[in-house]
Amino acid sequence: MPETAAKAEASAAKIKPANATTTATAATNYENPSSKPMGSARSHTKSQVTMTDPRFRIRPLQQVVSACTGAMITACFMTPLDVIKTRLQAQQSLLLSNKCFLYCNGLMDHICPCGPNTPSNSFSKPAPHFTGTIDAFIKISRNEGIGSLWSGLSPTLISALPSTIIYFVAYEQFKARFIDLHYKYLTPVKGTPFGRDIPMLVPLMAGVTARICAVTLVSPIELIRTKMQSQKMTHAEMLGSVRKVVQAQGVLGLWRGLPPTILRDVPFSGIYWTCYEYLKSRFNVVEPTFGFSFIAGAISGSVAATITTPFDVIKTHEQIEFGEKFIFAGTRLNIADNPPKSVSTPTTSVAQRLAKIYRLNGMRGVFSGLGPRLFKVAPACAIMISTFEYSKSFFYHYNVNKHNQEQLASNSVVDLKTAYGTTAEDKKWK
Predict the structure, then answer these.
(1) 20 to 30 A from 174, CA-CA: which of 84, 144, 298, 330?
(2) Where do the Solcar repeats start and stop (predicted)?
(3) For every residue of 346-404, which 3-state class applies, written as one string?
(4) pLDDT means per 10 residues in the chain (430 residues)?
(5) Which domains are assigned to the chain?
């Protein structure tokens, strides 16, 4: 019996070091990020764990929460800027005679019908004494209260949240799938850790595909929702309006503004994510800090906005014109009737519009509004991506910690079975 006990102890001694070695190896390869500050910008050489590792990837529900958080924070920061801009432009008579103002908080477009009998009248209330942005900020806050700077927040969130959530979740999902395909079929060396040497084609394709999905899903409902709000229509009246629009131009009439939107937003998305991922790769950042994401997001958004400005000009013109016809048509819901003077035909192509703008105003017209657009897009992209990345980092740490706890629990069970289990030698002795 003493000999058997000695053999059992020797057997346990042989097994325990192996388990300890395995645990140590796992700890080395997949270090617990809770010991590091959240959002620390770790390089590829410092950690084998990446956010693209299938074991620790952010779950779809976690991506939804991250995107929703980013969209709300971005809208809260950007809405006052657009309220002030709208008030400044509302001093002119342009917005007081059944015209539309294209309201954009950096996440998506929102058409504001401005006129004496529209709900947007208070939002676009003229103030002839505003002399500039700072003056408008001070006088609006003093005379109407600080809360009036967020007067357009509710409709913006209603529009922006679904589109932003669809877009960012779709991007993360497509990116993960493309990364899997890359490592499965294109990686020359097997065993290369996830998240390293990802080609720029991955974020480009993921960004383009995600934006196409988001724009296609949201485009048909935006102007219909705007008409419902502006005319206080019931759901039955709204359905009747949709039916007449379909009768006038067919089902595809609901997507009439889609081509210029795709020409602007899809290249913007592809360029933006490619630039952002390039900056992360250039500085060897696996898990970006809040500051890095903020700066990289602003730079990437500025580059993408500059390149796609001509398409933004076209898209803005068409959406405003379509909104004016669609919203202020009264009882005449056939949007093919009485087009504005600036629109030659409902079928004017994007190329024809761009050529007309170039003939009238040259390159200055093609890139008109670049400064104000950069002023909006750069901070909006910076706030959105930094908030989104920080939320992802939180869930990533949660997933890694949960995985480590499960691994420790599993190793403890194995150790207990090894130490106290009945060996074959004991059974033979009995």
Answers:
(1) 298
(2) 58-177, 198-282, 288-394
(3) CCCCHHHHHHHHHHHHHHHHHCCCHHHHHHHHHHHHHHHHHHHHHHHHHHHHHHHHHHH
(4) 49 43 38 39 46 78 94 87 70 48 52 52 51 81 84 71 91 92 69 60 95 87 58 67 79 76 87 95 90 97 91 70 54 42 53 82 82 87 96 92 86 70 51
(5) 60-77+152-399 (1.50.40)
